[in-house]
């Protein structure tokens, strides 16, 4: 999503950078005539997210909107969001290697990290959903028919909540790369799909986690649709020897950053609930 | 748009900066440190294994008095149905409240038992999605205006590298829609794409990703 797709100025924009008599920058989030004080989430730098239209990824051609996005000022519906809890979790949802009678094939890995907001603060008790193919690169999905074996002991679906420090942890197996038909000899680099809610509608994020040094990056239009190279790097997990368990599993760290809030002079102790 | 400097550190080298800003009266706070967000990626064609819940479409439980269905189809730029999209909804309760700490009127459970506020439905082979909910109330706006009853929708699909966001308004709220600040800012010629159509048991809201009837999508 890029700013060049956005038109119109925010109708209730007040922050013009000038100081009022009290020396307070009148940023959005300050008290307004009705007295409603709302947090406001910063917009990401334009090249952080992929553009909607990215012709190298053929499926965007008929699905990316042609009209520019309109700016939706953040009001109550945008700064709130579903706070989904334990009710969404099954006992073994965090361990994809223990969901069947036997163990799945493949390299056992531990994927962990923190969910943070753009201010560096942990996002606690938030739902993290993941899904992935098996070690051979095949999803347990009716539409995935390429000739790689299914694994009767692997579903490839996980869910957990972050703890009070925003930390999450999954045990799974290293997903395989898989072919697709986007371009000749096209292969997706190994990845795990992630879904995050954060604490507000504005923070909702669906992304993919990749593995360090994958030789398939160069030809993958999904990965390369992120134009800012630093932002692209943030999609790659880090091998984490401190989490690797001896004679058991390799550790990978993947921190996820959701949009942060603007500071507001009238707010104190955000989210102390 | 708010521009801000990208002070993004590389992961694993101190991204987890902890801050605890202490507000000081009369001093504008600096929102630093500012970490760059993790980029969005497409949900892909196999979202169903990961994101479908048995009760996903149930914003309210079956049998809830006054429950309505909201359903529609998703179309691509060739007019073909999109059979692999996911539609998520988020809305206020019938009193216009959110059970959320950032509702400045106070978090309060809805009067409707089992109200979740959130729904999700994948489209089927005909591009159809459907959720069961109750109509939300109108909302006060920070500027003293009133927002007409609405649902926020997120659309995910293969070929969408980032979710699309739109809003659903109700056709039986003509007066409220007429003063809604979001509708007012939308090109009048395209406003109708945000208003659902009545059906016997609820409302129909089709989503056109492209084409002459392209739905208005928002950057939030
Ligand atoms: Fe995938």
Approximately how much beta-strand content do the residues of chain B carry?
15-25%
Content-based structural category of chain B? mainly beta
Annotation field: number of helices of chain A: 3
Oligomeric state = heterodimer
Instruction: Output mean pLDDT of chain B.
Output: 88
Q: Order of SSEs of chain B, N→C?
A: HEEEEEEEEHHEEEE
Distance between the termini of chain B: 10 Å
Q: Distance between termini of chain A?
A: 32 Å
Region (Disordered) (chain B): 97-121
Protein name (chain B): Protocatechuate 3,4-dioxygenase subunit alpha
Biased composition (Basic and acidic residues) (chain B): 97-106
InterPro entries (chain B): Intradiol_dOase_C, Intradiol_dOase_core, Intradiol_RC_Dioxygenase, Protocat_dOase_a
Structural notes for this entry:
The complex is a heterodimer of chains A (273) and B (220). Chain A has 3 helices and 13 strands. By secondary structure, chain A is mostly beta strands. In chain A, strand 9 (191-196) and strand 10 form a beta hairpin. The radius of gyration of chain A is 21 Å and the shape is globular. The two termini of chain A are 32 Å apart. By secondary structure, chain B is mainly beta. Chain B has one domain (47-208): Sandwich (Protocatechuate 3,4-Dioxygenase, subunit A), CATH 2.60.130. Helix content of chain B is 7%, strand content 25%. Residues 1-28 of chain B have low confidence and may be disordered. Classes of the chains: A mainly beta (273), B mainly beta (220). Chains A and B meet through strand 2, helix 1, strand 3, strand 4 and strand 10 of A and helix 1, strand 2, strand 5, strand 7 and strand 8 of B. The complex binds fe (ii) ion. Fe (ii) ion (FE2) binds at residues 188, 191, 193 of chain A. The site of fe (ii) ion has 3 residues of chain A, from strand 9. Chain A: This is Protocatechuate 3,4-dioxygenase subunit beta. Chain A: Residues 1-17 have a biased composition (Basic and acidic residues). Chain A: Keywords: Dioxygenase, Oxidoreductase.
